[in-house]
Amino acid sequence: MSIEKSDLEELSRSWFDAVRDGIASEETLADHFTHPTGQAVAPDGTCFDASAQRKLHKRFLNEKHVLGEFELVQICDAPERARAKGWVYFEALYKDHPERGMLKSIVGEEYIIERCVDGKLRFIQYNSTFFAPLPGSAPFDIS
């Protein structure tokens, strides 16, 4: 069995639902990674563990994520792993400063994903490789 694009889409939908407007719990976040303290890496190299992910996404309102074009390459059969590389459209308002306007961007993403023994697909590695604000976007601030 190999990891299909529909598998990536399902994992992405679940992940985007989990981070939208603040992650409900660190357990919810950890369930999306093979390691319970999974982290995402920002384009500048900043690492976001579960706690930092929650803090970042709690700053936003009305988050929207749309999975764009992705290339999926199988890299291992046992365990079943693939590399996914592509982009995501992201938009949100800052909770504390909605007057700044909508943050709108294209985010480059590269993941290593694995089908775990329970059959669920999870991230081994989650990297955002670039952040490209779109015209008229509010400035992006991850601090």
Q: Would you kindly provide a written description of the structure presented here, covering whatever features stand out?
A:
The chain is α+β, with helices and mostly antiparallel strands. It has one domain (5-121): Nuclear Transport Factor 2, Chain: A, CATH 3.10.450.50. It contains three helices and six strands. The mean pLDDT is 89. The protein has a six-stranded mixed beta sheet with strand order 2-1-6-5-4-3. The protein has helices spanning 5-19, 26-30, 50-57; strands at residues 40-41, 47-48, 60-77, 80-94, 103-115, 121-133.
Structure at a glance:
The protein has about 140 residues and is α+β, with helices and mostly antiparallel strands. It has a single domain, classed as Nuclear Transport Factor 2, Chain: A, CATH 3.10.450.
Helicity, as a percent range: 10-25%
Average pLDDT reading: 89
Task: Supply Rg.
Answer: 15 Å
Shape: globular
Q: Which percent range describes the beta-strand content?
A: 35-45%
Tally the helices: what do you get? 3
Tally of individual domains: 1
Examine the secondary-structure arrangement and name the CATH architecture: Roll
- CATH fold name: Nuclear Transport Factor 2, Chain: A
Strand order of the largest sheet: 2-1-6-5-4-3
**The level-1 CATH class:** Alpha Beta
